């Protein structure tokens, strides 16, 4: 059996028995270097991959090799890029050499026509259980532009990789076909350009600029909420592109149902395609992200240090990378080897920030902010539905999430009787059994409260 075929069999078995994040991180660019006298030498691209495979996958790889080739006695690893890896690096270098050195890009690598940053690519996006669906959908639409998952709506909290994934879509589409028209823009920039177009009587040009695209990517669409004119123009732009089978990709910090003051017709359009969320990365994904970053930055940190960082920063990829950057700076300026105790001292100010105790004011503030109403409106006596429901949600959260007593809730929310509070909590509990959209809204509000 040829070495390439043998290794492909092993990789197929490995892929079935480990997560996508591990497989993509540690087995990319590996190959059988030699197979002589029963000893299989596996080439790996860097020291981290070598260390990880030796410690975590050595026995599994050896078992897989032996099941495919009975003469295998042992397996060893060397740092030596595979021919395919070398070929890819050569190709990337050639592409850089022939790239036009004009004014197309700004100093940050952002293309002035598309607004895409060239450093955001799928290869650098670490896949885990928290983002696997969103990543798979993103890959699919690059190969089936406008015909599958249109629109693609990706949501998740700040710092989890939405922008990276969105821009990777745009860069991949242009890589596959440079003739495609691609536009990436934040909702705030879209609004700003619309206002300028109205002021300068340039609406025809504005409409043409956005409706000529094969792929339109709108980031942070939640900021369109409450802006009637912007929503109206975006609605017409959306329809124009959709009717021509042009691809639309949208991101938000929450699902469409949970965006307050968003027009129903836009919400309906968003929900008509594919909705995928990006959650908090699990431990394995966080560790893979750190490993990837150290390889790119050509820094060698021990597993102990990387595991400590991965355990300490669990909810935000930006914070995770920020912590790693602090450690790398210390590593580069230090005159002695960096150990775990040094890392703990460096990161302790970031980790030891005291958490605010949750009180009624925080809940009222979060609910008012989410629904776009004034806090004082939630405390006055009114039967307007746009006020009653948010007020009932405040009471429900105070009771179910924070275990306040009914009388204490009533006294704080406009001096209401405890029976009124009980009724409000029962109503919200009843709505939650029937309405998944309300459940999503309350989950977003909870996150806002805990992040204050």
From TrEMBL:
SMART domains cross-referenced by the UniProt entry: AAA, Bac_DnaA_C
Keywords, ordered alphabetically: ATP-binding, Cytoplasm, DNA replication, DNA-binding, Lipid-binding, Nucleotide-binding
Domain Chromosomal replication initiator DnaA C-terminal: from-to ranges: 359-428
Gene Ontology cellular component terms for the protein in this record: cytoplasm; plasma membrane
InterPro entries cross-referenced by the UniProt entry: AAA+_ATPase, Chromosome_initiator_DnaA, Chromosome_initiator_DnaA-like, Chromosome_initiator_DnaA_CS, DnaA_C, DnaA_dom, DnaA_N_dom, DnaA_N_sf
GO biological process per UniProt: DNA replication initiation; regulation of DNA replication
One function term, GO molecular function aspect: lipid binding
PROSITE patterns in alphabetical order: DNAA (PS01008)
Domain AAA+ ATPase residues, every copy: 148-282
Region (Domain III, AAA+ region): 115-331
Chief location category: cytoplasm
Positions of the UniProt region annotated as Domain IV, binds dsDNA: 332-452
PANTHER family documented for this protein: CHROMOSOMAL REPLICATION INITIATOR PROTEIN DNAA
Entry protein name: Chromosomal replication initiator protein DnaA
Gene: dnaA
């Amino acid at each position: 059996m040829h070495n390439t075929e043998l290794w492909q069999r092993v990789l197929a078995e490995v892929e079935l028995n480990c997560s996508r994040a591990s497989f993509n991180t540690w087995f990319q660019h590996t190959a059988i270097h030699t197979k002589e006298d029963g000893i299989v030498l596996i080439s790996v691209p860097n020291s981290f991959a070598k260390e990880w495979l030796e410690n975590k996958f050595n026995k599994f790889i050896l078992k897989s090799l032996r099941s495919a080739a009975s003469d295998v006695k042992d397996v060893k690893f060397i740092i030596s890029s595979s021919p395919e890896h070398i070929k890819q690096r050569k190709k990337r270098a050639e592409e850089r050499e022939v790239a036009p050195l004009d004014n197309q890009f700004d100093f940050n690598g952002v293309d002035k026509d598309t607004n895409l940053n060239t450093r955001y690519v799928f290869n650098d996006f670490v896949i885990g259980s928290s983002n696997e669906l969103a990543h798979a959908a993103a890959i699919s639409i690059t190969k089936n532009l406008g015909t599958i998952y249109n629109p693609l709506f990706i949501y998740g909290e700040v710092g989890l990789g939405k922008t990276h994934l969105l821009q990777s879509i745009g860069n991949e589409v242009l890589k596959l076909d440079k003739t495609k028209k691609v536009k990436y823009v934040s909702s705030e920039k879209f609004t700003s350009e619309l206002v300028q177009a109205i002021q300068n009587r340039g609406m025809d040009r504005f409409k043409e600029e956005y409706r000529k695209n094969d792929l339109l990517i709108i980031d942070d669409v939640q900021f369109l909420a409450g802006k009637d004119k912007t929503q109206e123009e975006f609605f017409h732009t959306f329809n124009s592109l959709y009717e021509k089978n042009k691809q639309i990709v949208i991101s938000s910090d929450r699902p469409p149902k949970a965006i307050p003051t968003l027009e129903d017709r836009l919400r309906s359009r968003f929900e008509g395609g594919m909705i995928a969320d990006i959650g908090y990365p699990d431990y394995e994904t966080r560790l893979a992200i750190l490993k990837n970053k150290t390889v790119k930055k050509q820094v060698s940190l021990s597993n102990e240090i990387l595991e400590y960082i991965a355990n300490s920063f669990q909810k935000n990829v930006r914070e995770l990378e920020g912590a790693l950057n602090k450690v790398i700076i210390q590593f580069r300026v230090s005159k002695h080897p960096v150990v775990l105790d040094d890392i703990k001292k460096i990161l302790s100010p970031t980790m030891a920030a005291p958490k605010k105790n949750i009180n009624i004011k925080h809940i009222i503030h979060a609910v008012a902010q989410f629904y776009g109403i004034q806090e004082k409106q939630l405390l006055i006596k009114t039967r307007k539905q746009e006020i009653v429901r948010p007020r009932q949600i405040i009471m429900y959260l105070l009771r179910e999430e924070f275990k306040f007593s009914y009388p204490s809730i009533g006294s704080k929310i406009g001096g209401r009787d405890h029976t009124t509070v009980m009724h409000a909590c029962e109503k919200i509990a009843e709505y939650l059994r029937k309405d998944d959209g309300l459940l999503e809204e309350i989950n977003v509000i909870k996150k806002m409260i805990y992040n204050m």
